[in-house]
Amino acid sequence: AQSVTQLGSHVSVSEGALVLLRCNYSSSVPPYLFWYVQYPNQGLQLLLKYTSAATLVKGINGFEAEFKKSETSFHLTKPSAHMSDAAEYFCAVSDRSGGFKTIFGAGTRLFVKA
Amino acid sequence: GAGVSQSPRYKVAKRGQDVALRCDPISGHVSLFWYQQALGQGPEFLTYFQNEAQLDKSGLPSDRFFAERPEGSVSTLKIQRTQQEDSAVYLCASSRLAASTDTQYFGPGTRLTVL
């Protein structure tokens, strides 16, 4: 069975500081991995996804994530936080076995301080 | 419209009532997903449609939950005899292809409160 663990339900950074949101996955088959962002009163929006091409994936709004098989991790980073990055971020996993179920983590709320 | 829409945005039901939640996916999208998001949690998969076929309903929590997509476009999630534990945001998402890698586009959700 697949699962996703997001370490830290809340992360607070100063504007301009590095953003690091942690995600570890468990999967019996090579996974597909995703990061979604949810702004208040809006639907989830895809930030980036890993589908077995390059292990360093670049997404929208300056975010990127690196797939590390040995660590079963897919952490999300951004070099310099902006106030507009304040939102809820979800890591998700789906598998290659032909199913369509996507498993989401519990989410990490990012606060950005001026 | 350009995105996924859901209606109503908010629904308050008395325990025991039946409710119906509607999802209008992006036109032409093959795949449609329903998720349940409890407060402070991530979305939990409920069911998946490929066109009008319901290929996976393993996430539906009980037989009180029923979903349909009869013409392969609009979908309805029905909850019978609502219980307080059904209170959550119900999210709908669609994707263009029938592939696990395809980007899912989410609607704003329907917030269901069962009193």
Task: Walk me through the structure.
- The complex is a heterodimer of chains A (114) and B (115).
- Chain A has 114 residues and is mainly β.
- Chain A is built from no helices and 11 strands.
- In chain A, strands 2, 4, 5, 9, 10 and 11 form a 6-stranded mixed beta sheet that branches. A 5-stranded antiparallel beta sheet of chain A has the order 1-3-8-7-6, with no helix packed on it.
- The relative contact order of chain A is 0.34.
- The mean pLDDT of chain A is 92.
- Chain B has no helices and 11 strands.
- Chain B has strands at residues 5-7, 10-13, 19-24, 31-37, 44-50, 53-56, 65-68, 75-79, 88-95, 105-106, 110-114.
Features:
heterodimer, A: 114 residues, mainly beta, 6-stranded mixed sheet, 5-stranded antiparallel sheet, globular, B: 115 residues, 4-stranded antiparallel sheet, 11 strands
Number of helices of chain B: 0
Give the structural class of chain A: mainly beta
Share of helical residues of chain A: under 10%
Shape of chain A: globular
Helix content of chain B: under 10%
SSE layout:
The complex is a heterodimer of chains A (about 110) and B (about 120).
Chain A: E1 3-7, E2 10-14, E3 19-26, E4 31-38, E5 44-50, E6 56-58, E7 64-68, E8 73-78, E9 87-95, E10 103-104, E11 108-113
Parallel strand pairs in A: 2-11
Antiparallel strand pairs in A: 1-3, 3-8, 4-5, 4-9, 6-7, 7-8, 9-10, 9-11
Chain B: E1 5-7, E2 10-13, E3 19-24, E4 31-37, E5 44-50, E6 53-56, E7 65-68, E8 75-79, E9 88-95, E10 105-106, E11 110-114
Parallel strand pairs in B: 2-11
Antiparallel strand pairs in B: 1-3, 3-8, 4-5, 4-9, 5-6, 7-8, 9-10, 9-11
